[in-house]
Amino acid sequence: MMLGDPQSWKRQFISLDERMLQRILHVWSHCVARLPGQPEEDDITTNLIDLLLKDPVVRTLCHWIEYQFEPFGTNDQGAKYSKGIVDLAVLLDFDRETYLPYECKRLNTIHQGRRSSLATPYVNDGLMRFVTEQYAEGLPVGCMLGYVMDGDLAFALQQVRAAIVAQATPLKSRGGITNGDATPSIERFRTDHERDVSAQIEVRHVLLPFSPMAGAGANGPR
User: Fold this and answer.
1) For residues 29 and 18, what is the distance between their CA atoms, to the nearest angstrom?
2) Domain contains 185
3) Is 146 inside any structural domain?
């Protein structure tokens, strides 16, 4: 449970996400090298977490990184229950209610020579879960990682943007889509959303190219 100034917590989560992204980019090429072809989302996330947990810088940033983290809800009798599974959660301490969540989705998958953008599931089965507070209940920040399987970041961004615009009303969007800092190897943007119970949430999106050349030249663990 967050105590104190909500804006201070938000700044802390944003700073943590920025530092985590640096480490994700540091190990990304080695994650791609482990998994040639068109691996499943869980295989990519499992190997990404394995590399992050071995990174000495990551160990100074958080208490733990959990794969398939289950946030708890509370029913009317005070009993806890699982609210689902977040693909990746950065835990600050032993408090299960205060964490930085990352929901991971594949984009631009290739099957029998045909490309599927998967932008709609990215929005409906990923981003929407932050808006409904299935994930990140009471928290000011959530994160999405898009694994762009053919490396075509421009097409993936175009399709995701269109899917977000198409679902603007159920997503309770505020202010549209805000571009992040320009980085040649990734696409970054954020969206802001109202929620029924707690204050609005900022969702920070990163699209990563899953291709043999992604992040080539980075020095990191294997």
Assistant:
1) 18
2) yes
3) yes
